[in-house]
Amino acid sequence: MEAVKTAVAEIKSRGQLTIPKKIRDMSHLEEGQVVSIIPVGDSVIITPKRLELDEARRQIRKIVKASGLSEKELLSGLKEEREKLYKETYGKKKA
Length: 95
Prior knowledge:
Layout: H1 21-27, E1 35-40, E2 43-48, H2 52-67, H3 71-75, H4 78-90
């Protein structure tokens, strides 16, 4: 892909800025994606930002779907696992 050195864009009245398609493609920016905007002197840096919680949710959904288990089945051993973890961590049974 051809390198883009600079691009000119206009900031609209509500502060909206359109990032040119070539730059979006090069940076793998997609519609609806959240970005970080970092002020540096008189300039700004715009970088893709992945929301960790949203990414974790997506991964959990994939795992749950692939497992084929129901919500009840997934949660069935939760209490016992919590007690086991508590005992391993603190050395006694949770009251």
